[in-house]
Amino acid sequence: MISKANINKFKDLETPFYYYDMEVLRQTLDACRDASAKHGFHVHYAMKANFNPKVIDMIQSFGFGADCVSGNEVKAAIDHGFDKGKVVFAGVGKSDREINLALDAGIFCFNVESIQELEVINELAGAKGTRANVAIRINPNVDAHTHHFITTGLDENKFGINIWQLPDVAVALRACSNLQFLGIHFHIGSQITDLEVYKNLCTRINEMQDWFEDHGFQVKVLNAGGGLGVDYYSPDNDIADFENYFQVFKNFLNVKPGQEVHFELGRALVAQSASLISRVLYVKNGLKKNFLILDAGMTELIRPMLYQAYHQIENLSRSSEAGNPDAATSIKYDVVGPICESTDCFQKDVDMPESFRGDLIAVRTAGAYGEVMASGYNLRDRVGSVYSA
Ligand SMILES: Cc1ncc(COP(=O)(O)O)c(C=O)c1O
């Protein structure tokens, strides 16, 4: 809920901006830390979800590791105080420069996504006279039951190494003397709300660790990736279901003595902590449609346009918090941005109180994959950020 005090504060601010509720973030991090610590699990924050400096500083202060998907993320994690011994690095296309940067930083582990990449890391580590810790990212062909645009663990996806390639992986690992095999890594998709999916993942992880051990490799690390979803329809229901999520792994993962279990959560840690705050520039009443034209668009939050993602949209100026309990007149609006693209639409046919030029609009649950995907398309200004205490 965006409070009356905040709505009053926003009236004086230039829009659009991301509003970060740091207390929601704190409570979410607390809940995740408690739920994972109960089972001795290790959590790396997936930096790609949001690398706003204040956000990652707070996450770092909770002692989480970092999961990075570019050299610059590795650098940012270390610059922001994440322990290099808790940094993992995934991604299908790590460049030589990025690999060298991570080798120099002495990160915990590369999550390796192809046999060719294994060979390149081996060569680059050899040239530096060092050994690189690696985990094999396996594409487990497990359906995440999420939107197909954010599914990553099926055979048709570009991520990870397919199971049928594992015999070649074993040969490559034996030949690569500058690599230390740590374990196996998975990440099957994002915004997963059906915990059954994770049971299926556990089954596959158990099979895969047996495969490696049968082939003479000691598996010290099981990394189940991230993907836990949040409720975009209840933006005030802040905390993701960390308890039940970790409990699934506790119940179904076959963890052997001395093994570590790692996770890479992004969205579930940050999504509910931010809203995109915008103003109505124009109200356009057409024959077939009414349009609310906002001063924020796909350049500030691209998820609806890129993934057909749902975000709750609220008119703060007409809300009961702002002293307008009525909403007797509810009108259907297509809520759109100012960008010169027809796809620049947050949502069609949104039921909202009658809205006017200058009204403040909140696009909720925007803390994950929001600000980080902002762009300068149409030579737009960079979106701002505002923080609660
Ligand atoms: C390798 C990897 N790990 C973790 C994540 C975090 O996913 P999520 O934000 O859904 O938890 C991602 C994001 O897609 C990823 O690519």
* The CATH superfamily title of the largest domain: Alanine racemase
Strand content: 15-25%
Largest sheet: 8 strands, mixed
Distance between the termini: 16 Å
**What fold name stands as the CATH topology of the largest domain?**
TIM Barrel
Label the CATH architecture of the largest domain: Alpha-Beta Barrel
User: Structural class of the secondary elements?
Assistant: alpha/beta
Element order: H for helix, E for strand: HEHEHEHEHEHEEHEHEHEHEEHEEEEE
Sequence stretches where pLDDT stays below 50 over 5 or more residues:
none
Total helical segments: 11
The averaged pLDDT comes out at: 94
Q: What ligand species are in this complex?
A: pyridoxal-5'-phosphate
Helix content: 25-40%
The top-level CATH class of the largest domain is: Alpha Beta
Shape annotation: elongated
How many distinct beta strands? 17
Question: Rg, please?
Answer: 23 Å
Count of folded domains: 2
In terms of topology, how is this protein built?
Elements lengths: L3 H8 L5 E4 L1 H16 L4 E5 L6 H9 L3 E4 L2 H9 L7 E3 L6 H10 L3 E4 L2 H13 L4 E8 L21 E2 L3 H10 L3 E7 L10 H19 L6 E3 L18 H11 L7 E6 L1 H4 L3 E12 L4 E5 L8 H5 L5 E3 L14 E7 L8 E9 L6 E4 L20 E4 L2
Parallel strand pairs: 1-17, 2-3, 2-10, 3-4, 4-5, 5-6, 6-7, 6-8, 8-9, 9-10, 12-14
Antiparallel strand pairs: 1-11, 11-12, 11-16, 13-16, 14-15
The structure holds pyridoxal-5'-phosphate.
Pyridoxal-5'-phosphate (PLP) binds next to β10 and α10.
Descriptive account of the structure:
The chain is α/β, with parallel strands linked by helices and 389 residues long. The protein has 2 domains: 4-17 and 273-387, Lyase, Ornithine Decarboxylase, Chain A, domain 1 (Beta Barrel), CATH 2.40.37; 22-271, Alpha-Beta Barrel (TIM Barrel), CATH 3.20.20. It has 11 helices and 17 strands. The strands form 2 sheets. Strands 1, 11, 12, 13, 14, 15, 16 and 17 form an 8-stranded mixed sheet that branches. Strands 2-3-4-5-6-8-9-10 form an 8-stranded parallel β-barrel, surrounded by 4 helices. Strand 11 and strand 12 (290-294) form a beta hairpin. The longest helix has 19 residues, at 196-214.
